[in-house]
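Narrative summary of target 7.
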Amino acid sequence: MKRDEVFAQGPAQAAGFEFSKEVADVFDDMLLRSVPLYSEQQRMIQEISKAFWLPGTAVYDLGCSTATAMISLARDLPDARFVGYDNSHPMIEHARANLRESSFENRVELRYADLNGSLGEMPLTNASIVIMSWTLQFVRPLNRDNLLRHIYDSLAENGVLIVADKVLTNSSPMNRFFIDFYYDYKRRNGYSDLEISRKREALENALIPYRIDENLVMFRRNGFEIAETFFQWYNFAGFLCVKRSDTSTGRGERSRGE
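Modeled conformation, tokenized:
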């Protein structure tokens, strides 16, 4: 795994953060060192997906990057069909290489799509699981409602949307407090203050997080009858959103009745 030194040398990326070939080459290391409890979050996403996947349906990963999540899920769901969308050609190329190496290239389909573009070019046919890991935060706010409604309308009954994202707090001082803890976490993982500063500046206009309550309202506004958090670490959170017309009983009660 190539070490992430994108922001360590050379001029700062004045044009803003991009999922370029340089980023794609080190993206797996970037995630491991930049996303708190990354492996545990991936495990939780796998666990939830296994619990909610419906036989005969497909699993979609929007912003699939290097296909890490789909490769892990493909081992756990041998009968599922997988489709990954990404708007970075270098990421898709890395994903193809990872799929070949893991021998899952025949089970996972990769497609190019811009989540800020035409949703008609991103069909989610026969979906029961849609995953967005640190992706929704890069979708322009004006486009998020349309994207979420498209996902909701495409999901099968009892299908789920799983989202992991950065979040804001309800208090500006507390938000600063959590971000300082996050930067300490990055320093512990070997990032310098220069790297942290340069990446923060590059992401400033590209990554726009919402508060937890804003996210939950947005999910419910776009149809999801159930929307809850399943994870939080300071300024990172995971959301589970369920498409379900009957919300009178919990999933466990439904399962016992089947």
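Residues 248-258 have pLDDT under 50 and may be disordered.
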